[in-house]
Input
Amino acid sequence: MNERSVQAGSDSGAQFAVQRDLPDGHADEAAELYWEAFGRKLGLALGPKERGVAFIAAHLNRDRAVAVLNGAQLVGVAGFHHLSRGFVGGELRDLLASYGRIAGVARGALLATLERPRRPGELLMDGIAVHPDHRSKGIGRLLLSEIARAARELGYSTIRIDVVDTNPRARRLYEREGFIATSTYTLPLLRRVMGFGAATTMELQV
Output
């Protein structure tokens, strides 16, 4: 994937750099942001936090992301799936190496419950993570705009994101940017172990 950098202003008047691909040297920051955003969902499978952040940072596919930087600081990142690879990688053998055989198998089974099949022509997002100090500054909108650009360049006609029922803030962002809720599915067994029991599929035509 080709990298592209643009400058865009947020609602606060600040200027941020929007870049295709995660830049070199920002894997640890990206992993921290992802844990901040999705740690409640990933905690049982990859926790505790220190080990989970380290695992994510070590297995990122940097070309499956768009990033927003404020100078040298990564303040937002969004991942997506393309050609069978998502932003957050890692296979069963990596889990076994990091957590041991028994724990690795159990953690892999938990992660498998979160996997979502893709339909032809559909760019599946891994989610958006924004630094807490930079929320409400338009960064989510910048990330989604760049994701839409990437989707068109890669030949996709639809962007899809699945939003869990415990993240209404994210759902409001997607709705403001034109995403339409198409279905909701319940996962009652996951509420006890991962903190959510339903997710809504939202789509945007590009």
Observations:
- DSSP finds seven helices and eight strands in the chain.
